[in-house]
Amino acid sequence: MMVLNANSQEPGVDPAGRKSSGGLTLNERLMLSLVRRHGGLPKAEIARMTGLSPQTASVTMRRLEDDQLLVRGERQRGRVGQPSTPLALNPDGVFALGLKVGRRSAELLLLNFVGTVRQVLREAYAWPSPEGIARFVAQGVPALTETLAPDLRGRIAGLGVAIPFELWLWGDIVGADMQAWRDTDLVHLLAEVQPYPVFVENDATAACGAELTFGQGADYPDFIYFFVGYFIGGGVVLNGTVYRGRTGNAGAVGSMPVRSPTQKWGQLINVASLFTLEQALKAAGEDPSRLWRTPDDWDDLGSVLDAWIAMAADNLAQAIAAACSVIDFSAAILDGAFPVAVRERLVAATRAAMGRLDLQGIVAPQIVEGTAGSMARAIGGASLPLFDSYLLDPKVTLKEPVR
Asked: Which residue ranges are recorded for the region named Disordered (predicted)?
């Protein structure tokens, strides 16, 4: 992950260990992460889980309340001992901006502290250009921030960007010369057109992180994730954290070899990506631009969509079986930039295709739907500044207590 802080001056640290710029101590971030993970916890439970003394935990939690990062829930009665009051993340405690740069469209959204999308802007194009993305962000950031009350606008943690790495390599398929991206420093480009720190992550990895943080990922400590965009991508989650691998290329599911009914070998990216649906629509005389202009309305795509779902499901099943022969994943989570009804059909078809494979020696994982849909990449981008300044990686909350 790359990061550039808008304020280049290194923040100081006060005697309590808190950064003078408003950054949090490790214990404060750990408490916020535990509260986020469990949805709300009383002070006594937080003290027990962190290993801190009740007094230290109480003082720290009170400070987080004073900073409006935590809010009190309703008092819980009917249990043994004194009634307890759970503390939860304040949805308006922190906000973040998330940008998805896709090959056919861009999204810019405003996310609150609990992962709810407050506002979203979209723009479709024939292909992305650095100048066009900078213009979209320069116009979109003020439009989104102005939807917040004036006293909340100072609580925006940063702008997180989800973008395919080495975007220029795919210009031939998109039908454009995108070599300008090769020499573009996106972090600095966007830092010049808006005032917030900029963070950048691979788009599929960001989508996987969004599912882990705000979706069903917490229910599965190990899963393989597929996101069907213009090109299919994905991620690997092990022990509750995104695994990036030695070179950062873990989860490059588009490169997985699969075999067609004609016994020809190829890669998953060529048979389970939306560009293949785009090509099929063109061949049928249909306008494929609706896939990017109106991503929630595919009701009349008919037999072209039916054939694409069948082909994608057959090959996704092969990819899932291959992945589970290496790592015993408990789940395969499927999501994509398409309507919920299409996601439901694709998941059902993939489950059926798994049933037709020889799975001897493999424990088939649960195949489940993702939750964020087309906004998964932008949500994952927005989570980057939240984790940078306020939260800890999920695996940290599962280690030994911080004392």
From this structure: 1-22
